[in-house]
Amino acid sequence: MTVEVDTPQGVRSGSSVIEVGGHINSDLAPGEARGRAIRSVKGEAIGVGLPDGKMLFALMVSDRDADYMAAAALTAADGEPWFRQKLAPDDLRKRQEKFLAQPRPIPRYFRRTPSKNGVFDNYPIFVTFGDLKDPQSIKRVDPDDLGSAFGEGIRLRRITVQMTDAPVSHRVQKYLPWIERAEEIPFPAEFEAQNQTFGDYRRFFIMEGK
Fold first, then answer.
1. Vertex 210, ends 90 and 95: CA angle to 5°?
2. CA angle, 93 then 98 then 104, to 5°
3. Which residues share a beta bridge with 21?
4. What pTM does this model have?
């Protein structure tokens, strides 16, 4: 996943290689778990260096989904004729892989199913820090108005996804020196409502495929 930002000094971008795996529970699994699709995500948040030493982060979660990254890439295919068709698993996989062989933009909004009214915000949570060394200085950023947080001329250009054979990224530690002990850090006040849904603070930035 790559995040691109327009600035007065040109386009700034940051990328992260995120591994998504999964399986279907056995028919022998108990109750509602039977036949359920289980996804796992291994990777880290995307950091974008902006003018004046500021940093923008696209987190691993969205407001509506603690497992946002598990399916984010697939929403890029929303406009494809085959996307909502009932296809055999192998056929669907081949179409997805062919589609994601080149960068594809993540739609700003997404209608999960044709039968549901309305659309969902389809971007991850964006944040910055007043001080990168202080995990409590996190601040939510509006992706539609980066200028309010970073200054005039700063705006989000796009988020894209593409399949790759590159290894999972391990870069966020260089920006956030406290990240290895983040599971011990209480959720900042602005995100207390997400405490129950997202588990621990570290999961905002790093997921380990569990």
1. 20
2. 110
3. 40
4. 0.87
